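HOLO CASE FILE
Compound: iron/sulfur cluster
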Amino acid sequence: MALTALEIYKHLPKTNCRECGFPTCLAFAMQLAAKRASLDQCPHVSEEARAALEGASAPPMRLVTIGAGEKKKLEIGNETVLFRHEEKFYHPVGIAVEIRDELSDDEVEERTEYINNLRFERVGTEIEVDLVAVRNSSGDPGRFREVVERVDKISRFPLILISDDPHALHGAAEVAKDGRPLLYAANGGNWEQVGATAKEFGCPLAVYGESLEELAELTGKLTSMGVEELVLDPGTRHPREALERLTLMRRLALKKNFRPLGYPTIAFTSDGDPYQEAAEASLYIAKYAGILVLRNAQTWQVLPLLTERYNIYTDPQKPIQVEPGVYEIGEVTEASPVLVTTNFSLTYYTVAGDVEASRVPSYIIVVDTEGTSVLTAWAADKFTPEKVAEMLNKKTNIKDKVKHRKVVIPGLVAVMTAKLKEESGWEVLVGPRESSGIPKFLKAWTV
Ligand code: SF4
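Model generated. Tokens follow.
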């Protein structure tokens, strides 16, 4: 757990000499606690204090990087809080899709291409999966190596190599090493061999333990071998037990600073009913997988899971915003409707989608409300008649684009009608309260 300013202060010289650029040692400690200063700025810290402060300020959960070279890299771990509202989550869960090596060569290629194309657009952002997990389901090391080589050539994503057989894992790691795959997994019986493979090829390594005690013991052994980038499998596929262990591991790492479990985790969905699989995946995205491996990954499963991840891993203090300005939807003319909304991404894209659905080409004026939605912005004085009037008459060229002077405001802020008319000189029409009412509203539009 991160140290408080007072805990840091106890280790500082307390001379208030100002050489660090801050007026007192306490002020410097406060900046250090907020991670806005570096310990190196104080030239007077003793070696003991430095060791204590650097050790304690190491992140409670290690950062692990999978992938290298031309493949998209995935970083997981380095989280600092249990709940998003305490600060934010830093590294979104990596979503992997499995390919079994008992498939034919054509099927392997087809599935790899399918995974390459699992990407969607959500409120103006592209969302996609992150990893391909190749499983040695055939039990044949030669076939595993062949399939890994084939997938590695086609996949845009880094790989997870899954095998119980250390010999098979070594062969596959050898052909895929340049892409820095995650090797799965070291366990109580094979950790020396698999750990040696991870070390030889410089790959991150997953660790499987039947219990948290076993996991902690294994991470100790592997780190003393020099294998530092570890990913922990809680050792159960039962969703309730897995949730319990993932939560305990996260608590122990972040709240108790228990280093042997201070690594990101990996969870697997079960191979059965696809609805059950989607429910399990959703659970693990919420709490607390670092990587989630999907067995099937049909489009209807993947899109809501990527959306869930996107929502959870959005910084709650930085709403996703679109640029303020004029947006054209469809083949607009000088008679097209002009609608106003806020720059909260979700609001804008919902309105834009409904305008598109109306098939009435329109202009949308997006007002800078610091990424807040209509009612929130209104309540916080960020969506005011003055700001809207400024967008209509000064900050955009909408007056050159349309001949009429009619603007549609969201029904939720009907209360600004009179003031906006007075400020802007535009005729103000009150639109629907919900965006879903826009198509019907626009179909009745006349200039
Ligand atoms: S340089 Fe070190 S001793 Fe001097 S004020 Fe800053 S923290 Fe205190």
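CASE NOTES: The mean pLDDT is 93. The first helix runs from residue 5 to 11.
CLOSED: yes
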